């Protein structure tokens, strides 16, 4: 779900909240049975883990990772455009 955060409209805390409140558990139940206090602690732990990993990694690595991710997404988009173009052409006989 990192792509959602990269879009800039969702903070890590909100993303975790959405995940926990909307995704059903394996038995089909929603996570509403988890007490709000526990979910709050999980959100805080997630945020702190994210912050600690950012502190461990040099800024140049984070910039390179973002650029590499963007290049990979552009490659996928290009491939999809190519397949769509082939699909819209009449079949060759």
What's a concise summary of this model?
The chain is 72% helix and 0% strand.
Topology readout:
Layout: H1 2-6, H2 12-22, H3 36-56, H4 59-88
Helix pairs in contact: 2-3
What share of residues are in beta strands? Answer: under 5%
User: Average pLDDT across residues?
Assistant: 80
- Which structural class is indicated by helix and strand composition? mainly alpha
Molecular shape: flat
In helices, the fraction of residues equals over 70%
Regions with little confidence, pLDDT below 50 for 5+ residues: 1-7
Number of strands: 0
Structure, described:
- This protein has 93 residues and is mostly helical.
- It folds into two domains: 1-56, no CATH class; 58-93.
- The chain has four helices and no strands.
- It has helices at 2-6, 12-22, 36-56, 59-88.
- The model is unreliable at 1-7 (pLDDT under 50).
């Amino acid at each position: 779900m990192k792509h959602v955060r990269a879009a800039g409209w969702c903070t890590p805390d909100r993303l975790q909240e959405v995940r926990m409140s909307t995704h059903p558990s394996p038995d089909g139940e929603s996570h509403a049975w988890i007490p709000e206090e526990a979910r709050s602690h999980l959100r805080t732990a997630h945020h702190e883990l994210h912050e600690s990993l950012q502190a461990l990694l040099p800024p140049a690595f984070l910039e390179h990772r973002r650029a590499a991710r963007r290049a990979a997404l552009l490659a996928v988009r290009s491939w999809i455009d190519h397949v769509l173009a082939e699909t819209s052409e009449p079949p060759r006989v």
